[in-house]
Amino acid sequence: MNTAYLESLHICFCCFFLPLWGLVYIDEHLKKQIVGVGETARFVCLTAIHPADVQQVIVVWTHDGVPVNLTRHNKYSYQRHANQHILVIEHTDYRDSGEYSCQAKAGTVEDVSTAHLTVLGVPEPPKNLQLISCHGQSAELVWDPGDEHGASIRMYTVQFNASYQPDTWHDYSEPFDGETANALVSVSPWGTYAFTVIAHNSAGPSEPSNVTSSSCSAPPDKPDRNPKNVHARTDTKGKLVIEWQPMERLYQHGPGFRYHVFWRQSSSTYWNSAYQNDAAADSYEIDVDTVYGLYDIRVKAENDLGESHQPAFVFKGHSGEDEPIVVPKDFRLDRSRPLTSSTAHFIWEAVETSVDKIQGHFEGYRLEYWKSSEGRHKMKQTDIIVPHEQKDEPDVRAAISGLPSYTAVRAQVVVVNTHYSGPPSHIIDFFVPEGVPEKVRQLRAESVGMTYVLLKWLPPEIPNGVLVGYHIDYQQVVNVSLGPVIPLHPEIKNPSTLGARITGLEPHHSYRFYVSAKTKVGLGSPDVVDIRTVNGTLTEASKEAIPKWNMQKKKASISEGRQIVGSMVMLFVQILVMYLGM
Known about the structure:
By secondary structure, the protein is mostly beta strands. The chain folds into 5 domains: about 5-120, Immunoglobulin-like (Sandwich), CATH 2.60.40.10; about 125-220, Immunoglobulin-like (Sandwich), CATH 2.60.40.10; about 230-320, Immunoglobulin-like (Sandwich), CATH 2.60.40; about 330-430, Immunoglobulin-like (Sandwich), CATH 2.60.40; about 440-570, Immunoglobulins (Immunoglobulin-like, Sandwich), CATH 2.60.40. The chain contains 5 helices and 43 strands. Strands 12, 13, 14, 16, 17 and 18 form a 6-stranded antiparallel β-sheet that branches. Strands 36, 37, 38, 40, 41 and 42 form a 6-stranded antiparallel β-sheet that branches. Strands 2-9-8-4-5 form a 5-stranded mixed β-sheet, with no helix packed on it. A hairpin with a 6-residue loop joins strand 21 (about 260-265) and strand 22. It is flat, with a radius of gyration of 44 Å. The N and C termini lie far apart (about 115 Å).
């Protein structure tokens, strides 16, 4: 009978009827799996059978036709949920790749489903790498591919080292196609080289292959390039300092390697030249009588076989700078801007920025300032860069932030080029206004009772003005929630008072206190301390001793000498009122 017809008949039967007694089939087939090395693979096999035969179903798992050893609990585990059979493979490695089958049996009837597991990882290194030829500056390599480990080889990278630097491996400039197993590579003159090869797939690069047992030696030749990053450095007066990036031994190509340095003033047609014979050198200095003069410069690589095959590019560079000779004029405070407790604004006339005046590249200005009480040796500086669109304006405006409050300050301005500053302007004196103080120091709870706390602190290290007192806020802490912040009154008006006894607190409660120093400008940032009052039960007598407005409104008060007397008078009045009301 036609096989396709039987299969379609079986599918139709499975879809529309319950399986007959003794008939089992796989209702949901295994699905292929792709996992990385060390990951977990999971195959699910869903069987269908008549309910009366569920307990008769036996499922056998195989790997490449061999039964899976389910007693290896560190590798395999088998789970069953009704008609669902699950094989879990832990800590996969490349040996776990292959065909997995779920074979469901009920008596003499069985059905099988198969799927592939791919354990994906970086490929094995290429094997049996050999150098089969070496002629002039060419070497030919062949190798055997290693195991792909689940993903096809995308490319190969050839690496080489040189006998004079055997621990340094270089990648060949171009990769080779993953379907090839040989490579023809060029090598640099004047060296002896060994090779290795790395395979790449979608999971990453392999370890390097074995190193070739034989090496390839190339004869010397002239250099094929010149130094990079040729430029002039301008920080040395009276010198033209030409710098470049030194060329590695790999690119010197022969003995007697040296740098041929050329220079001329840009207005001249005659080239001066000299040799730097140190192959590791990165500069050459020439004495000149120009200040920030413009020069043409170039550096060419040479060895005993001749100069580089490539022409050397010509670059522009300047000789060393010197101090600017121009002085900013009419330096003063900018009265159109407010002088605050931390910022001062200045204005002065812009200077002429020609090379003759600046003696270098004009960078801008530098504001210099210091406390009048300390002198220039503690001078601070702020660089002022003039935007290009403002360079033609007649005046320059700038500001200094972070000034010390309530302090006499002196300031001046100078012109700067890349490396030097010019003579200063005249000095101006000004006084920075008061600001808010810094935090109080060493805030702490000196003692804590059931209903009170005694706070102590030290004044701010930097008051930023004249202290006029202290301000205290508090809030109750319940679990992780904070209550409203409540200010304590009256404020401390005497800056010499460095503590406060705060009463009227609840026993066994947590509070957070904030203490801020104050100048006439305002409050500084607060320091914070958390306390918890002592646990206990207030007697009726002790309740009578606490003013009622404290107990009911949960307010605290600062007890100082005169307030204690006032509280006693208030208590007497309250007791008298209570007595008359009875």
